[in-house]
Design a protein that fits this description.
The structure holds two protein chains of two kinds.
Chain A lengths: L1 H12 L17 H29 L16 H8 L1 H32 L7 H9 L6 H11 L6 H8 L14 H26 L3 H9 L4 H12 L1 H16 L3 H6 L11 H11 L3 H33 L1
Helix pairs in contact in A: 3-4, 3-14, 4-8, 4-11, 6-8, 8-11, 11-14, 13-14
Chain B lengths: L32 H29 L4 H4 L14 H9 L2 H32 L5 H11 L8 H10 L6 H5 L6 H13 L2 H9 L4 H12 L1 H17 L2 H6 L8 H5 L11 H33 L3
The chains are: A mainly alpha, B mainly alpha.
Chain lengths: 316, 303
């Protein structure tokens, strides 16, 4: 049954992502028509994506403050990023955020997906919808709600945890706990998204594989390790890339909850870009930092694609 | 469209972690199947309630009087229900204006992006022209550029155009986007080509094929992309924070952050009331289209 479903789905999905012999060959002189179709989008993407890329690169080699006065400073801004402990610290903070966020979001969403994919669970559709609700709440609003829940005086969660003997104190003023707290808010907001992707991935795994594993005497844990995980490879790759990129861009809830504090313990790269670029008007430094963010995003994506691409080949 | 969550056939091995009936009844923790089902249900229910706690707290606190919010010990459900917080947000913020701004901004971006993205996607999926492959690769590559990284030059450009604190400044830079073009192109490729070829043989122009053949068949994809774009922009904080400086031009998401202000007493009552109103349009939209929305998320991971 699964194989039929798969094959029809494949036929339906049609050409491969990037290849795909597309257009009709007998279409001569359609270049002008194609251009007309593409023009509005191309203008927007050129002006607001491509040109800013070039412009940011140029700015990153200057000390521009946005008022026309600027000097070429070579790699000065980049040197500062990697030598000034204040700025270097934001790279570390972002890395820490990513290290906390990605596995937490991944494991949490996968665990819930496994629970929700169990056919013996009643009301699966309802739970799927309910658990997806945080995804439509903005990070800013999520930050408000969590700030209130964790308020040291009037916060419900703080009060309940105290009843259980856990003293959290003022987490947003605590240099060690502030970071896990802002990460928690992001995990809360986004796990539903990853969970839904995992559920879809789980549904694609042929049942026959589990039956074969069972006949071979594999227990639940072994089946998870040797059937579920390898079969989820693509989905895992997608989620990891997505989560890492999201982590590199952390801003909203930090802006609302801590403003980067206490003692810059939650000052991420995008927080720093915002403050250097739009508050202190050090456009050169902010642009250089933007490029570091850009390169980090690109490198991560490429590493992940390669890593999972190779594993996929090995599996075949 | 393909249903992602297919109705489960009566196969016991469907669940990766589930135990077969033959296994239950063994081992020290053996439970009857009925008990297992109940245990699973209760575990998931409790987890769901924990997850929804912040949303529940927003909805309940919005109706609490200030005295109750600041009382100790804190309570979940209001003892007295009041609308004071909702009245207060209209006094503390240009709230109606912010709400309208959010609609114009998120709605405007969505409309523009749907039109421009689908036009470009059609050219990439159906028209033969030199450089189409290079262009497609460039568009896919630009997916990896986070907007935060190019925000400063975009801001300068918007400033040079005199668009700071205008809807044009908020909307036009996002009037087309690489993800939307790629997403729609993939969908257009999945549509059978015979339909549009038949129209072409009948002498229809490309614009007509696009409008009368391809677009009507792409409604699910357009709806999905539209919802995503609307929700993302409605919820975005950094973008309106950068492109609007006057409180009257902010969106509801950026406007609410003004409530936190300088440290002191945090006005939780108005914050929660404002949050509730900010979430409400999306919640209604979500309730109407939740199935399609969730399933389209599911498909994005399966490419």
């Amino acid at each position: 049954m699964t194989s039929i479903v798969k094959s029809t789905r494949r036929a339906y999905r049609a050409p491969a992502p990037l290849g795909g012999r597309g257009p009709l060959r007998d279409h001569k002189g359609s270049a002008a028509i194609a251009l007309a179709f593409l023009l509005p989008a191309l203008i927007i993407l050129t002006l607001f994506v491509a040109w800013p890329m070039v412009s940011a690169l140029r700015l990153s080699f200057t000390n521009s403050s946005g008022f026309g006065l600027e000097q070429w400073v070579g790699f000065g801004n980049y040197v500062q990023i990697f030598t000034d402990p204040r700025i270097l610290g934001t790279l570390g903070t972002t890395a820490l955020y990513a290290v906390l966020f990605t596995p937490t979001a991944l494991i949490g969403s996968l665990a819930l997906a496994l629970l929700l994919n169990n056919p013996r669970l009643a009301g699966r559709g309802f739970f799927r919808t309910a658990l997806f609700v945080p995804f439509i709440v903005s990070l800013a609003v999520a930050a408000f709600a969590w700030s209130y829940l964790l308020d040291p005086q009037v916060g419900l969660l703080n009060y309940w945890l105290r009843a259980l003997g856990i003293q959290l104190g003022n987490v947003l003023q605590d240099p060690t706990l502030a970071m896990p707290t802002v990460v928690l808010v992001a995990v809360w907001k986004s796990f539903g998204f990853y969970m839904v992707i995992f559920i879809a991935g789980l549904q694609e795994i042929p049942i026959s594989l589990y039956e074969a594993a069972r006949i071979d005497g594999a227990g639940a844990w072994k089946r998870f390790l040797h059937v579920t995980l390898p079969q989820l490879n693509n989905t895992l790759a997608f989620v990891v890339i997505f989560a890492l990129i999201a982590a590199l861009q952390a801003f909203d809830q930090i802006y609302v909850m801590t403003g980067g504090g206490p003692y810059r313990s939650t000052q991420t790269v995008v927080m720093e870009i915002y403050q250097e670029g739009f508050k202190k008007l050090d456009l050169g430094l902010a642009s250089a930092l933007s490029y570091v963010l850009l390169l980090a995003t690109l490198i991560l994506s490429l590493i992940q694609f390669r890593f999972f691409g190779r594993r996929e080949k090995d599996a075949n | 469209m393909t249903r992602i969550i297919a109705p489960t056939p009566p196969v016991r091995a469907r669940s990766p972690l589930g135990r077969t009936p033959s296994q239950s009844g063994r081992g020290p923790f053996a439970l009857s199947r009925r008990a297992q089902r109940w245990a699973l249900f209760v575990v998931v229910l409790v987890l769901t309630l924990i997850v929804l706690l912040p949303v529940i707290v927003i909805a309940l606190t919005a109706f609490k009087p200030a005295a109750e919010i600041n009382a100790y010990p804190p309570t979940l459900v209001p003892g007295v229900w009041t609308l004071d917080n909702f009245i207060a947000i209209f006094k503390d913020l240009p709230f109606a204006r912010l709400f309208l701004n959010s609609f114009v901004f998120a709605g405007g971006v969505t409309l523009f992006a749907l039109v421009f993205d689908s036009l470009a996607a059609y050219a990439l999926a159906r028209l033969d022209f030199r450089g189409s492959r290079v262009l497609l690769i460039a568009i896919v590559a630009s997916l990896m550029i986070p907007f935060q990284a190019t925000l400063i030059p975009i801001y300068q450009l918007v400033g040079d155009l005199g668009w700071v604190n205008t809807f044009a400044g908020l909307i036009i830079p996002r009037a087309a986007d690489a993800f939307g073009i790629f997403f729609l192109r993939q969908f257009f490729l999945s549509l059978p080509r015979d339909l549009d070829n038949a129209a072409r043989i009948d002498g229809a122009s490309e614009l007509r094929v696009f409008r009368s053949v391809v677009l009507p068949n792409a409604v699910p994809a357009l709806l999905t992309l539209g919802i995503f774009t609307f929700v993302n922009n409605w919820n975005d904080l950094l973008w309106p924070l950068v492109f609007t400086t006057s409180p009257d031009m902010g969106t509801i998401t950026s406007g609410l952050t003004l409530l936190t202000g300088p440290s002191g007493i945090i006005p939780y009552g108005t914050m929660m009331a404002g949050s509730l109103v900010a979430v409400l349009p999306l919640a209604i939209l979500f309730l109407i289209v939740q199935r399609r929305f969730i399933e389209s998320v599911a498909t994005t991971g399966l490419k």
